[in-house]
Specification:
This is Transcription initiation factor TFIID subunit 13. GO terms for molecular function: protein heterodimerization activity. Belongs to the TAF13 family. The chain is mainly α. Among the domains are: about 50 residues; about 35 residues. Helix 2 crosses helix 3.
Length: about 130
Amino acid sequence: MVTPTPDTQDQFDQFEDEENEQQLGATASGRKRLFSKELRCMMYGFGDDQNPYTESVDFLEDLVIEFITETTHKAMEVGRPGRVQVEDIIFLVRKDPRKYARVKDLLTMNEELKKARKAFDEVKYVGE
């Protein structure tokens, strides 16, 4: 049997620290993963394995966060300084037909949901 030396003990401690970080869902930068559950479902829906590699999900999340950050910074430069408005996002995606169509669909759906909620609340209020 080999007795651990102080150097090997440090290696074991370091390994345990890395395991604890991975279990908590933290990244190397110490940031918590926000979209991993949704990204796993999306990856499966687009043909990946039901349980994709954690590294793949983390990499995709890094790309998503980077895209959101860059788009937000660009939107802050376009309109009023320091503020992001819907019109700024529309302006940024206007030349990309797929993104523009998706933004338009989401905004239309948002308006329909607001109207439906309002109608539901009015019916509920009158019924009481």
